[in-house]
Amino acid sequence: MSGSIAQGTSQTHGNTHILHFMVRIPRPMEDVWAAVATPAGLGAWCTAVDVLEPRLDGAVTLRDLGSGRVTAWDVDRVAEYTVEGGGRIRFHLERDGEAGTTLRFTHEFQGEQASETGWRARFERLIARVESLPRTRPQSPPEPAGQEPLPGQLT
Predict the structure, then answer these.
(1) Which distant-in-sequence residues (6+ apart) come within 8 Å of 114 by Cβ?
(2) Tens digits of per-residue pLDDT, 132-154?
């Protein structure tokens, strides 16, 4: 199974634009979190990160988007960066079944610099990147409950 990117939506309120995407990635949240909340992760698919203090109100500098502050931080679930010139960029992760993740993305900005096409291309890189990484936890079938060990099997 490979990831998918739902059709993006765009809203405009005066000079403020809001893009929303829902991206499904067939990997655990821990794998996706590292891709949206670490310098190496973001740098691999989105933009180079010069500064990222992983905490609420920490400093952040996203090379192609701007410098600012971490405006929301809920470990393993929400990373939001508000940068001058680049607006507010929010990654909200939710579990999707046993081993999948749904990323709800919002980019709120002024002017015309961002586009659905540009973010869609980034998300395609994100999916490819996360799917190519080793899994953080092995996928093994659950052991049946209440079964006696086989002769010679260690318990």
Answers:
(1) 17, 19, 87, 107
(2) 988 765 454 445 555 665 666 56
- Look up the pTM and report it: 0.81
The closest alpha carbon to 66, from 54, 80, 43, 82, belongs to 82
Count of Cβ atoms closer than 10 Å to residue 139 Cβ: 8
Number of neighbours of residue 17 by Cβ within 10 angstroms: 19
Q: What are the DSSP calls for 7-74, one per residue?
A: PPEEEEETTEEEEEEEEEESS-HHHHHHHHHSHHHHHHHT--EEEE--STT-EEEETTTEEEEEEEEE
Q: pLDDT tens across 45-83, in order?
A: 999 999 999 999 999 999 988 999 999 999 999 999 999
3-state class (DSSP) for residue 100: strand
